Structure prediction request, 171 residues.
Amino acid sequence: MRALVVYESMFGNTEEIARAIGEGLGTDEILPVDHAPRDLAGYDLLVVGAPTHVHGLSRPSTRKAAADQGSGSTRTGEPGVREWLGGFTVLPPALDTAVFDTRIGKPRWLTGSAARSAQKILSGLGHAPAAPAESFLVEGDGTETKLVAGETERAREWAAGLRLRRRASRA
Prediction:
């Protein structure tokens, strides 16, 4: 199985989860969205992740606000996941997809979910997810966040389960 993990990360939390997912999938094809390919031919699985901003995927204005709130630099640049996914009109038919996000550890109805927003875009391209959207939680004081203890390991396990489900569905 050839898997690609594409992520958007402002402060490094989503990147850390993406790398753990890559480990769980057994792939080293883990790319920031600003370096992600436009041609996905040859991939069997696409996993996309982003931080939750204002209840969904980031926009240029929310990425700028995040950069201004932090040290002024972010891990990924333009485009964000919303724009990258929005640039596709079709995806390879055999491509399986899965999505994840990072968000503050409060009820989803309060925080929203970037993963659910990404899942809607992928579904609109005719790709139902291979697994339900997954959120990995962060905590912080508003200006600095860190992953909740155990989330990196949970990401590895989620990805390993995704790999097993995909293998079983292809058998």
